[in-house]
């Protein structure tokens, strides 16, 4: 099998529209039903919904307090659009940091899960995010672990990375399989 990977010169939101176009093409080619989107405010998930309305979309956002305080970063307008379309919005701790980051922040050092996150970032921030949100969605029961899914992640805003993978639950993390990279920025 021969497939292309699209590499972007720079990471960031300017790649979002192209990533969504590529994801739609590959989703249709393979018949993949589930798409997981990292979307802090909900804007990117709404954009995916508008362009790929026939997919089962799961929107993943930061946990409360990610940037301090007790606030969520979701935008009410986007939340309403997603909820009205039946798109679940997952709010929870990151699977590749969580309590481990709290330990490192308090006592120094690094935890094994942070090493995994750092290793995935060697490819790109988006690759790390795609793996992370897949585990989070699987643990929440929002996606199956016996089928391929498409995960979209990025660097700060929008998405610049898309991957096809077979997710796994946190307790079986190393059963996760990255099957294809559709697009990503060059590091």
Give descriptors for this structure.
single chain, 36% helix, Pyruvate Kinase, Chain: A, domain 1, alpha/beta, 7-stranded mixed sheet
Question: Describe it for me?
Answer:
- The chain is α/β, with parallel strands linked by helices and 187 residues long.
- It has a single domain, classed as Pyruvate Kinase, Chain: A, domain 1 (3-Layer(aba) Sandwich).
- It has six helices and seven strands, in the order βαβαβαβαααβββ.
- A seven-stranded mixed β-sheet has the order 1-7-6-5-2-3-4, with helices on both faces.
Which helices and strands appear, and what pairs or packs with what?
Blueprint: E1 6-8, H1 16-30, E2 34-38, H2 43-51, E3 56-61, H3 76-84, E4 89-91, H4 98-107, H5 112-121, H6 125-139, E5 149-153, E6 161-166, E7 177-185
Parallel strand pairs: 1-7, 2-3, 2-5, 3-4
Antiparallel strand pairs: 5-6, 6-7
Give the structure's gist in a few sentences:
36% of the residues lie in helices and 20% in strands. Strand 2, helix 2 and strand 3 form a beta-alpha-beta unit. By secondary structure, it is of the alpha/beta class.
Strand order of the largest sheet: 1-7-6-5-2-3-4
CATH topology: Pyruvate Kinase, Chain: A, domain 1
Distance between the termini: 26 Å
Order of helices and strands: EHEHEHEHHHEEE
Mean pLDDT: 91
């Amino acid at each position: 099998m021969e497939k292309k990977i699209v590499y972007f010169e720079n990471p960031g939101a300017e790649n979002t529209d192209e990533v969504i176009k590529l994801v739609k093409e590959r989703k249709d080619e393979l018949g993949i039903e589930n798409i997981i989107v990292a979307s802090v405010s909900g804007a990117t998930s709404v954009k995916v919904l508008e362009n790929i309305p026939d997919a089962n979309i799961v929107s993943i956002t930061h946990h409360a307090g990610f940037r301090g305080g007790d606030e969520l970063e979701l935008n009410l307008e986007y939340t309403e659009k997603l909820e009205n379309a039946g798109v679940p919005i997952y709010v929870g701790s990151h699977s590749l940091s969580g309590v481990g980051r709290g330990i490192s922040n308090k006592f120094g050092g690094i935890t094994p899960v942070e090493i995994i996150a750092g290793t995935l970032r060697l490819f790109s921030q988006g690759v790390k995010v795609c793996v992370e949100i897949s585990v989070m969605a699987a643990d929440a029961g929002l996606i199956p672990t016996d089928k391929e899914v498409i995960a979209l992640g990025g660097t700060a805003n929008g998405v610049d990375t898309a991957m096809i993978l077979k997710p796994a639950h946190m307790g079986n993390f190393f059963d996760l399989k990255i099957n294809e990279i559709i697009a990503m920025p060059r590091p």
